[in-house]
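Reminder: ligand-aware prediction takes two inputs, not one.
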Amino acid sequence: MTIDEIKTRVAEFDRNPGWYQNIDLKNGIVTKTRRIWGEKIDHPRERWEAVRPAFPASFKGKSVLDLGCNAGFFSFAAAERGAARVCGVDYNEKFIEQARFANEVRGDRVEFQVGGVTPINFKRNTFDVTICIGLLYHVTDIMGAIMEIGRVTKEYAIVESAILESHEDHPLVLVADQNTSRPGTWHPNIPALKKMFHLAHFTRTETLFKKDGRGGIVAWK
Ligand SMILES: C[S@@+](CC[C@H](N)C(=O)[O-])C[C@H]1O[C@@H](n2cnc3c(N)ncnc32)[C@H](O)[C@@H]1O
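Here is what comes back for the chain with S-adenosylmethionine:
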């Protein structure tokens, strides 16, 4: 693709569905110029800084699943660390089209699939590592999704979510959105998030961070 063709496609995707993630296309072009859901223009930079300590310097030989991958930012981060196989999954076809476009322009070899999380369309223990960033609170059946992560993951999961920082008596709260037909979003506190991963057959969990209504854990099989 020529630079002009790349810029044209970036602008088309900007009109529909809009770029949620700002991805470096490695030729002086980045994808994002405006907010689509209130996120910052450099999204997911802050999220990346929060979860980066859980990413090893090398994923050499590892297979990595990026659930709720959007346009592939975290999939590309795994590919850059030398993963043998990276798959990005998102239920929104338009985001998967963006991801495939970015993959082609960047010259990466990530596989992107349209798919959901209950079930995840892969066999037991397919992936060494599962990345699940900014997804769980969107999923209606949050425990079902975590069970599925436990089923497809062999070694560990890196998880980031909206969380409750207090509410010790209410470990998992459904925050209802009165303006849409969606049921709302699930906000666990960190102990509840860890407990759900233990129930999904992860044996050890560690807190990665907790800040400003977001939190992260790493869960090991
Ligand atoms: C808030 S965005 C987070 C994207 C990315 N992981 C990040 O942190 O920048 C949530 C993503 O999950 C996808 N998503 C939401 N519910 C999903 C589901 N049930 N199955 C698969 N993807 C889902 C959305 O299409 C969206 O791309």
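The chain has one domain: 57-220. Strands lie at 63-67, 85-90, 111-114, 127-133, 153-162, 172-175, 185-188, 204-211, 214-220. We will return to this case in the review session.
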